[in-house]
Specification:
- Helices cover 83% and strands 0% of the residues.
- The protein has 5 helices and no strands.
- The model has no long low-confidence stretch (mean pLDDT 86).
Length: 122
């Protein structure tokens, strides 16, 4: 048996096709997985933005309107962030997203702060 006979045999061709198919599937699935993660991150950030906007409209504006200087105390700012975090988690849960796992539990406050700055700028 020589090399030509081995390479043209059915088992060898099946093996080559299987390896090529596996490599192709790995390449395709990695880009698909990456797109899936980006889409999940975008959905999570939309939940955070929605929550921040709701809390800003419902809670923060009423507090600012009640004061002559329009400023919130440190406790009121802390409470507003807690409300935004809780609301974002609730919104994400209804969308089937684990917000803490997607954005990171320790980074959630950072994302809330970023969205809040964007909301304040208009």
């Amino acid at each position: 048996m020589n090399l030509t006979n081995i390479l043209t045999s059915d088992p060898a061709l099946s093996l080559v096709a299987g390896v090529a198919g596996t490599i192709w599937a790995a390449v395709q699935s990695s880009s698909w997985f990456s797109r899936l993660n980006r889409a999940r991150l975008q959905r999570a950030l939309r939940c955070v933005e929605s929550a921040v906007r709701q809390v800003y409209e419902e809670y923060v504006r009423s507090l600012k309107a009640a004061r002559a200087d329009g400023a919130l105390t440190a406790d009121e700012r802390r409470r507003a962030r807690e409300l935004a975090r809780d609301r974002a988690v609730a919104i994400a849960r209804t969308d089937g997203i684990d917000l803490a796992a997607t954005l990171g539990r320790e980074h959630l406050d950072l994302w809330i702060e970023r969205v809040l700055r964007r909301v304040k700028r208009g």
